[in-house]
Write a structure and sequence with these properties.
β18 and β19 form a beta hairpin. This protein folds into 2 domains: about 10-295, Transferase(Phosphotransferase), domain 1 (Orthogonal Bundle), CATH 1.10.510; about 320-605, YVTN repeat-like/Quinoprotein amine dehydrogenase (Methylamine Dehydrogenase, Chain H), CATH 2.130.10. It is built from 10 helices and 38 strands. The protein starts with 10 loop residues before the first strand and ends with a strand.
Amino acid sequence: MEALRPGDPRQVGSYRLEGRLGEGGMGQVFLGSTPGGRQVAVKLIRAEYADDPRFRTRFAREVEAARKVGGFYTAQVVDADPSAEEPWMVTAFVPGPSLRELVVRDGPLDPAGVRSLGRGLVEGLAAIHACGLVHRDLKPGNVIMSPDGPRVIDFGIARAADASTLTATGAAVGTFAYMAPEQIRADEAGPAADVFALGCVLAFAATGRGPFDADSIPAIVHRVTSAPPDLGGMDTDLQNAIGPCLAKEPAARPPLPHIGTRLAAAPPRRVPRRAVIAGAAGAAVAAVAASTTVLLWPSAESKAKTFPPTPLTAPAASQLLPGGPVAMFQIAFTTDSLTLVGAGFEEVWRWDLTTGQGDSSEVGEAFRNMGRPVLSGDGRVVAGNTGAVIELRDAATGRVTRRFPGSFSAKGLSPDGRRMAVRGRDLTVKILDARTGRSVRDITPVSSVPDILKFSPDGRLLGGCGAGGRKLEVWDLESGRLIGTSTGRHQSSRVEFSADGSLVAGAASRDVLLWDVSAVSEEPTVLEGHREEVTCVAFSPDGRVLASGSKDSSVRLWDTRTKKPIATLGGHTAEVAAVAFAPNGRMLAAATGTASGATRLWRYP
């Protein structure tokens, strides 16, 4: 939950507002409390809708219908005032993260979890449809994974089934990747549109991606209206249950009871209680923080993960992202490839890559006074430290989530932000639980004093080197064993691992260094071509392409199998300080580290 902003109301009706839960297309959502102290979610409608008398009429009708919706798997509408100067609606507060946040953070649900989720959503949608409503915006962000089962939330753009359109112009409303073809065409969208969205949501829960995902809104629209869904990565029974929901024609989609029967074909299992892990928040209903055990070592499943191929060609012309000028020292894509996050001395920037728009949040003293901040691999957490305190902040809001004492120099965050690697005054590298600050493993460097510490994407390895160039060392975190140390003649000022942990890259002056992780103690492959010092390196998700940035303002791409150059990318006018590939393998970003800095994005055709 975010604190109330200076311009936010403190009271709506009889409900006292306590914080901001989220923001949607039609309004802002606040955490409120009743006079008796019960927590509720309060949705305040945007002024542009409040000024439309036709909207008020529809809103009043829909609120009355929504109040009739019961059932265990929905968030009950408890109060509303469509005639207020700013219309508002109050629903029951549901603690827990959204399905989107749960999957992004912890990975897809297993087949039994998807079936359990699906049966709950079928029941929730059935309750909504029974009252003459169509949700019209069912998506992972509008499913809250509460401790006792999933809940469908946000009837903000639901409409009465007998209404012809929601907006005066008939424009499509909702989130494109989860919208039925008839919604995108702004045709009549009945209960079958929710069935289509249900299929998309379940596919996302099973695979971590939408069945019609693409790199741009026009491409998504084309796939939804004209292309078959991508249901790869799930078992055949789930494909058979979900696939019919995604028929292009509404009449061809199965009714909800039939879907529920198909999903019940296997033994049921409750949705995992990982849904209440601390710190998550729903898209419209924020999570209540809950204590949990931090998983220090990833499961063996991470080794078997496959990644989309990255083209062995130059991407298209770059796009200059708005914002700044500000120096960026680390950048990271969120796991859905929809957002790019950048960390600087005084600001954290987030760019929505579906719109190209960005916004920033200021970070505190800990980030300005003691070295460069670091990001987790998924862009969710940013860390900084003063001489005596470590701060962790939510990269989306800039708010402090953890603060604990620690006088450390080098630092690095694990991909999921749950662990931190730091170097203490005694030169020992400590692996800290980022929730408590407690040390869970100590590692003693063998031949160098690392200024840079980097986790592998699967969290199993840690690399260390000196910012000014020292021997590169690689450790196995589960055992604490030193895997290898680079030879004396190959000092490295950077360290980066491929996603599967099989390759590690470094830099020495103008050269890029590439090793097999199992052979770090042997001679690396030296990739030559930059005119000035190499400042950053990054692997594509499939490990086939290595990107390197330099003080010569260029980004170079290398084929890691042939060890040959692929392309040189220009556009920056200052030294490139950070490079990153999107998890979908279709985008590359680079940021400069100067006060007049800029961030650029390249997309593959």
